[in-house]
Input
Amino acid sequence: MTGSTIIFYLLAAITLVFGLLSVTTRQIFRAAIYLLFSLIGIAGIYFWLQYEFVAAVQIVVYVGGIVVLILFSIFLTQQAGEKLAKQKLGRKIFSALAAFCGFAFTMLQISQHTFYETADEAVPITVFNIGKKMMSVNDKGYALPFEVISMLLLAALVGCIVIAMKSKPEEQ
Amino acid sequence: MEPGLYHILFISTALFFIGVYGFFTRKNLITMLMSIELILNSVNLNFIAFNKYLWAQQMDGLFFTLFIIAIAAAEAAVAIAIIINLYRSHKSIDVENAEDLKY
Output
């Protein structure tokens, strides 16, 4: 067992254990913190796969952005020290059963399927290559999706402000 | 055993169904949003693994992951705006209490 393998299993364990804790804990603040560790574990797996740019984006957007957003919304909407309501046991059992059956079925399909690796030479995943491809307007470039995403982000920004804005009191 | 594609597919499948379990059992809107984040992350992990092991001469999976992360950020922002608005009008973010459109 090499060091790289040990690190992989460690990252996998961190991701799955904290993910499971995040959906089962009854304290919502802790759920957010466990989610944070799970996302960091996934970023670690991206580092392990040597996709450093995606790992950096994952940490900046998810850990730095979305989890902080979730924490702030918890502060705004929850009373301190209040636990989430307990779920019915039957619902829990059926949910776990459904999730486990789906998991077993998917893993069965994956284990029976043979994946063929390409023999072609791998492109080095450097920020230079990513940036060049993202701005390219050739038929394998991503300039159009990039622009569409930027419009979507603008629309989401304006939409958020409109939704969360306090409605004006009626004019006298 | 040296970790490969199947190990990463195992992680992403397990994470996906952990998220599904959370989505089934939770009643609080913020925790449901957390479960959706877990599901989206498992999809991203799949894209990166397939790009790394099966399609290494192109970078399509990487770009899909980047775009999914951007869309997930927009989705989380809109969802939290809606949750805060709901809390303002109903004083609760439990899905059981948000039933104005039901009848």
